[in-house]
Amino acid sequence: MRRRSWIPNTLAAVFCLVWVFPVYWMINSAFKPRPELLSTTPHFLPTSPTLDNFVTAVTQDNFLINLRNSVMVVAATVVLAIVVGIFAAAALSRFRFSGRRIIMVVILAVQMLPGTALLIPMFALFNSANLLGTYYGLILAYLATTLPFSIWVMRGFFIAIPVEIEEAARCDGAGTWRILFSVLFPLVAPGVIATSIFAFIAAWNDYLVAYTFMQDQSHYTLPVWLASFTNPVTGTDYGGQMAASVLFSLPVVVFFLIVQRNLVAGMSAGAVKG
Amino acid sequence: MTVQSPPALTSKSDAPAPRARGRRPDFTPLWLLTPAALVILVVTIAPILYLVYTSFTDYSQRTLFTGEFSYTGIDQYTTLLSSSDFWKSLLRTVLFTAAMVAGSMVIGMGVSHLLTRLGKVMRLTTTIVLILAWAMPNVASSLVWNWLFQPGYGVVNWALAQLRIFGDTTSLNWAGDPAHAYAAIWMLVVWQAVPFIALTLNAAEQQVPTEYQEAARLDGASEFTVYRVITLNFLRPTLLLVTILSVIWDYNVFNQIWLFSGGGPDDATSTLGIFTYKTAFIGFHIGQGAAISVVTTLLLLGLTAFYIRNLLKSGEDL
User: Fold this and answer.
1) Contact flag B117-A8 (C-beta cutoff 8 Å)
2) Which segments cross the bilayer (chain B) (predicted)?
3) Is-contact B287 B54, C-beta < 8 A?
4) Which chain B positions have a beta carbon within 8 Å of A208's beta carbon?
5) Are residues A97 and B289, on separate chains, in Cβ contact within 8 Å?
6) Across the interface, do B33 and A41 touch by the CB < 8 Å criterion?
């Protein structure tokens, strides 16, 4: 056995090289000056690394405005999903009542819908309600998917709290609401943080809804800005695009590493789609 | 919605909640659920009902300005079912989904098993690489793919040219030809799907009791037989769930296709998602788009229902 351990290690090394390559190439390209990017033999390391591409990206028209839009909409979505969701999650995990199962089915089913199933009716409804192109509309659209899934994930964290803790508080004379606010919510805090991160990633990464609903460039969010990143004079500016991709992906990667241990549970509820 | 139904307390003995012993009906869950129920009702349930309703109307671009549309019965559905574009999109979606699921499951299972055979350092390295690929937002990875496969300066074309098998591939335009476009998008989706599959399966694989495997090895079974007969047997429930989830996700893949090939060339990579989007938001035949969306959802409903049932069953045990 021991003698053959080079086989799995070699396979893993090959796998890692292939799998990390796109990420490495994105970072590598982000630091290359234009002549190195557009050369017929690729440079595997930038020979004269530069930050120019990052400067191009952040000084692009609308970058700051679109960043602000993203932060605003995502923050509102996360806060609303958590504040509204935490009570529902408590109800679905600490109580038994009729209709509970059907609510959970609805919550899960929403995650499995094709994107257009909500996009089309929302577009029509928002058009009549004058919500198209507004941040309120975008936040509502994001809540449609993040709220159900936040409820589901937080429910999992509530279930993990032993019932005995609650019973002890009840024996000490605490009422239902007191137990909720002073016992359960503090205990579920780490789960709330993990859930917020999932909700953040889902809303931050959305391209389709913002691209469809927001009708002028100053209202776009970062993913739409990123996808439309082209230089009007020279065509696609790959260096700028890769630098912008690095900047856009960075917060998500950092957050992913933080919630790494909870990722699998969140994914199976449809948190971050591939 | 069912939320409105009175949350009459059941006094079932299996109820885990301490309040189940209360004497008078406890309306607490109703209060707790109301805000979320209202939001879900407005932003999720209502739109879904409206989608179904719209699919029976001639809602179109004109409607967006005048607000006028009329009920047309099942016209949208008959138009759809007699449209060859729909059937072609459906076929593409089914075949491409199968290819993506097969690819990511096979590689994911391989990597999951590989992880169990690695030393500490290599295992950590592989896990980090997996998380990196997983964490990349798909808008960013789609752009990276465009650049990797770019005709002229893309590193993939350069590497293929170095192999000297396919001739000079330097200016090969991947998005310009159906087979190449599919291949590139397949790689993109599989690249992002493998981490979840590999890490989930690996978590399950670590729970497989080693006694069985050791006993089989003592009986002279080869490593492959041990994997096939013992490990796979233990992995079966996880494999089933991961496969279903992969089918649902890959069936709904949109951004990667949209940003890599835009559904082209000539609709060659136009799957159901792209077809719906183009119908509803480029042609603004919203009624027709709604009908496609309803059919798309119904086609997957069986699988979705099965998955949810499974998830709920495992959730009840907690």
Assistant:
1) yes
2) 30-53, 90-115, 127-148, 181-204, 225-249, 286-308
3) yes
4) 254-255, 258, 277
5) no
6) no
Query: Considering the domain B108-270, what is its CATH architecture?
Result: Orthogonal Bundle (1.10)
Q: List the one residue out of A170, A151, A165 whose CA is nearest residue A86.
A: A151
Amino acid found at A192: V
d(CA B243, CA B233): 15
* Residue numbers of B between 194 and 233 with CB closer than 8 Å to A: 194, 196, 199-200, 203
Say yes or no for a CB contact (<8 Å) between A116 and B276: yes
Note whether B36 contacts A19, CB cutoff 8 Å. Answer: no
Phi and psi torsions of B135, nearest 5°: -75, -25
Q: What ipTM does the predicted assembly reach? A: 0.88
Which residues 6+ apart lie within 8 Å of A77 measured at CB?
A139, A142, A143, A146, A199, A203
Question: What residues in B contact A251, CB-CB < 8 Å?
Answer: none
Nearest to A50 by CA among A35, A66, A68: A35
Using CA coordinates, name the residue in chain B closest to A114. B252
Span B110-165, pLDDT tens digits: 999 999 988 889 999 999 999 999 989 999 999 999 999 988 888 898 888 888 77
Which of B28, B44, B142 has the CB atom closest to A144's CB atom? Answer: B44
Please, are residues A32 and A239 in contact by the beta-carbon 8 Å criterion? Answer: yes
How far apart CA B9 and CA B25 sit, in angstroms, is 6
For residues B192-212, average pLDDT = 89
Looking at per-residue pLDDT, the higher value among B271 and A233 belongs to B271
Asked whether the beta carbons of residue B136 and residue A12 sit closer than 8 angstroms, the reply is: no
Q: Quick one: DSSP state of residue A97?
A: B
Q: How confident is the model at residue B14 (pLDDT cuts 50, 70, 90)?
A: very low
CA distance A256 to B53: 39
Structural domains of chain A, ranges and CATH numbers in brackets: 2-54 (no CATH), 56-268 (1.10.3720.10)
